Amino acid sequence: MDIRPLDPEDLPVLLDLTTAVFGPFYEDFFRPLVGEAVFVNRHGNWKDDYRRHLAGLHAPDKGKFAAVARTDGQMAGFVGWVIQKAERHGEIDILAVAPSYRRLGVGRALAEHSMAHMRAAGADVISIGTGGDDFHAPARELYESLGFTPFPNVSYTKAV
Fold this sequence. Notes:
Structural class: alpha+beta
CATH superfamily: Gcn5-related N-acetyltransferase (GNAT)
Strand order of the largest sheet: 1-2-3-4-5
CATH topology: Aminopeptidase
CATH architecture: 3-Layer(aba) Sandwich
């Protein structure tokens, strides 16, 4: 596996990967759970939201960094992180692994890669967030195995 900084030319492939990774959550889990009104209001344009997010993922002048993992010439996953130097804090903003590369150590390698960069930049604390639902259970398992402490959070949304 090769991990390297994100290149703007990677963005179309990363958007496809992001759609493959998170599409089942938005379309098969979140949408039926919250109903159409909430879905459309909160995440109805989730693909466009990710397109915009990915475009600004690697902006070192703003403390934003990203790396991609390639295996056998294929995009296996990517990670984006933010460093807040004044607070000595880093945050893994997004971590995605292509379905065919899950459970092969790609997510762990990307997380460790980003954490090493954050520590080198002076971070004393690193955070990451994920969902508490069944879809995100593998992510929680990975983060806890890396030593992150989960903190329960409940978010409510209602159509009115």
